[in-house]
Structure to design on (281 residues):
C-alpha cells in the first residue's frame, strides 16, 4: 500500500547516532521535500554524506531507519533556504510516480516525523522546551515530564453496498466530477465500527450493517491513518449534511462518476475492489 514502509525498510524506533557514511536525506522545507531530477520525469532523494554537501543547512535531523542497510534521515531546513537550480522542492502528493515507490513510501514516514519534531519543540502543558527522550521516539518535558509522541489520527473510510449499487459522495473541496467513499476521523472514545456508524449517519443519514475491514493506509497529510471498510446498507434514505458534503448518490459498474480518486489513495483501491466483487457475484 502506498505510504506504508516497504519490506526492505527497517524502521528505527528511536533516533540513532549519525554515521559518516552516505545516507538518504529527506529534507523538508515546510511541507516540501528536496529532490533532484535524474532524468526526464524521474526524481531522486539525495543520497549524500551530509546536507552541507549540497549547500543545505538543517535545523534538526532524526534517523528514521535503514533502507537496504543505508541510513535514512529526516530533517527540517530553515524557511529562508533559497531556491537553487540544482534541486526541486515538491509537495509529497505530486511526487507519486516520479520517485522510486519505496522511497516515496519512506518519504511519508520521514515527513510525519519531521513534522512532529517541528511542532513539539515546547511542552503543551507548561511551555518548557522539550528534550528528546533516550531510547524511544518521544519528546519529553524536563519540567513536568509530559511526553509528546508522534501523533497519528485514525480516520475511517467506508464503501456501502446496496445490491449492485454502492454509495459515493463528494466533498466541497474535491476537483469537479470526482466522487469517493465516505470518510471521517475517529472521535475520542469510539471504536472504528462506531465511527463508521456515526459518520455514515451524520453525512448521508442512512444506517449500515455488516462492517468488514478492507485495508489501511498511512496518510501523511499531515498524520492520518486511514482504515477502510466495506459495509452493507441497512435502512434510510440519503439525506446529506451540506456542511460536510456536497452530494452523494448510488453508483454502479455501469454508472460511475466522471472522476474517481487518484491511484495514490486507498479510496481508489476500495472502489476497484468493490467493482471486482460485484463482477464476481
Ligand atoms: Zn511541561
Amino acid at each position: 500500500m502506498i505510504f506504508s514502509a516497504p519490506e526492505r525498510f527497517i524502521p528505527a524506533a528511536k533516533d540513532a547516532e549519525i554515521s559518516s557514511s552516505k545516507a538518504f536525506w529527506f529534507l523538508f522545507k515546510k511541507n516540501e521535500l528536496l529532490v533532484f531530477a535524474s532524468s526526464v520525469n524521474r526524481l531522486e532523494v539525495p543520497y549524500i554524506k551530509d546536507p552541507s554537501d549540497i549547500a543545505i543547512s538543517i535545523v534538526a535531523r532524526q534517523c528514521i531507519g535503514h533502507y537496504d542497510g543505508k541510513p535514512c534521515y529526516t530533517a527540517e531546513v530553515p524557511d529562508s533556504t533559497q531556491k537553487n537550480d540544482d534541486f526541486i522542492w515538491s509537495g509529497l502528493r505530486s511526487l507519486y510516480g516520479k520517485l522510486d515507490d519505496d522511497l516515496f513510501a519512506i518519504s511519508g514516514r520521514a515527513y510525519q516525523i519531521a513534522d512532529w519534531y517541528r511542532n513539539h519543540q515546547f511542552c503543551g502543558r507548561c511551555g518548557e522546551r522539550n528534550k528528546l527522550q533516550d531510547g524511544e521516539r518521544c519528546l519529553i518535558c524536563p519540567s513536568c515530564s509530559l511526553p509528546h509522541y508522534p501523533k497519528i489520527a485514525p480516520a475511517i473510510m467506508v464503501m456501502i453496498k446496496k445490491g449492485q449499487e454502492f454509495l459515493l459522495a463528494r466533498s466541497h473541496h474535491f476537483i469537479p466530477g470526482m466522487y469517493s467513499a465516505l470518510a471521517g476521523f475517529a472521535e475520542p472514545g469510539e471504536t472504528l465500527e462506531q465511527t463508521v456508524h456515526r459518520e455514515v449517519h451524520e453525512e448521508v443519514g442512512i444506517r449500515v450493517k455488516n462492517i468488514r475491514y478492507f485495508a489501511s493506509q498511512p496518510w501523511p497529510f499531515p498524520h492520518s491513518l486511514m482504515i477502510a471498510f466495506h459495509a452493507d446498507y441497512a435502512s434510510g434514505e440519503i439525506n446529506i449534511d451540506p456542511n460536510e458534503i456536497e452530494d452523494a448518490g448510488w453508483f454502479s459498474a455501469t454508472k460511475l462518476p466522471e472522476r474517481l480518486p487518484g491511484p495514490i489513495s486507498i479510496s481508489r483501491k476500495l472502489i476497484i475492489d468493490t467493482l471486482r466483487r460485484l463482477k464476481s457475484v
The pocket of zinc ion is lined by residues 123, 125-126, 128, 141, 143-144, 146 (CB under 6 Å). The longest helix spans residues 101-119.
